[in-house]
Amino acid sequence: MKILLATQKPFAAEAVAGIKKIFTEKGYETAVLEKYSDNSELTGAVSDADAIIIRSDKMTPEVFDAAKKLKIVVRAGAGYDNVDLCAATAHNVVVMNTPGQNSNAVAELAIAFMIFMSRNQFTPAAGSEIEGKKLGIQAFGNVGCLVCEKAKALGMQVVADDPFVCADKISEGGAIPITSLEDMYSSCDFISLHIPATPQTVKSIGYDLITRMPKNGVLVNTARKEIIDEDGLEKALESRPDLKYITDVMPDNYEELKAKFGLRVFATPKKMGAQTKEANVNAGLAAAHQIVNFFESGCTKFQVNKNK
């Protein structure tokens, strides 16, 4: 059994060692492809792999066509929009993610972003505090729950909206349920985004919602770039010179936004939510255990694509 660990953004060394140890104990071979520059390298490396662990690597139809022995892909992280699920299903390949393993890292980053923008990106000008401010959390999954917990510990008021989570669970998680996105945006000093990129959510956050925010509102995106209507965002920032936007998924028009709005916008050079050693280790080891469980017992607990 050959397992390919394919990561343009490499795991922490501790994670790689742990993954190899898990597979070695089962008699599996581990191959490692790191920091590659072109997807053709992935296509070549996967040709004789029975399983693959990836991070943000692109599993395109061409990759699946080349992977003649592939039975399972595990995305070490929650999102999986970098995997062509239709192609995977057509090739009878199971696709899994590792939900919850990166959640604390992302939640900490979201809180850090709020403080960073409240303090004017740590420039000398007087900033403000987040204690006593109202936070709206859009999507109340693993990350949203942790953001709520940390925000409340810092004295914030927290409301949340999630059409897939019942009001009782949101309340149990410490937030006040709110069923209208318009009401949430209108009443919250901060909005923290945790929705996936789906046909329903792509470009769903735009001018109309953003401009509902109160004076000095801050929109925080640690989810996906695609959920933002970037033209609408630019228009909102133009019409409301008090609003701010911060993200760890750089917009296509970031240079233009930065030139126009200065300290009111900020984007990390690369997606940073899961970029901690702890998240690396948690997600990597979880992915390895899921592959072992799949081959040993047929477990498909975290499968995200449909069977043919």
Oligomer: single chain
Supply the CATH superfamily name of the largest domain: NAD(P)-binding Rossmann-like Domain
For the largest beta-sheet, the strand count, sense and barrel status come to: 7 strands, parallel
User: What level of helicity do the residues show?
Assistant: 25-40%
- Terminal CA distance: 24 Å
Strand content: 15-25%
The helix count comes to 12
Order of helices and strands: EHEHEHEHEHEHEHEHEHEHEHEH
Number of domains: 2
Rough outline: elongated
Q: CATH topology of the largest domain, what is it called?
A: Rossmann fold
Using the 3D structure, state the CATH architecture of the largest domain.
3-Layer(aba) Sandwich
Radius of gyration: 21 Å
The average pLDDT score comes to 95
Secondary structure tally: strands: 12
What features would you describe in this structure?
The chain has 308 residues and is of the alpha/beta class. The protein has twelve helices and twelve strands. The strands form two sheets. Strands 8-7-6-9-10-11-12 form a seven-stranded parallel sheet, with helices on both faces. Strands 2-1-3-4-5 form a five-stranded parallel sheet, sandwiched between helices. Helix 3 links the parallel strand 3 and strand 4. Helix 1 packs parallel to helix 12 and helix 5 crosses helix 6. The mean pLDDT is 95.
Key descriptive features of the protein:
2 domains; seven-stranded parallel beta sheet; 308 residues; alpha/beta; Rossmann fold; single chain; five-stranded parallel beta sheet
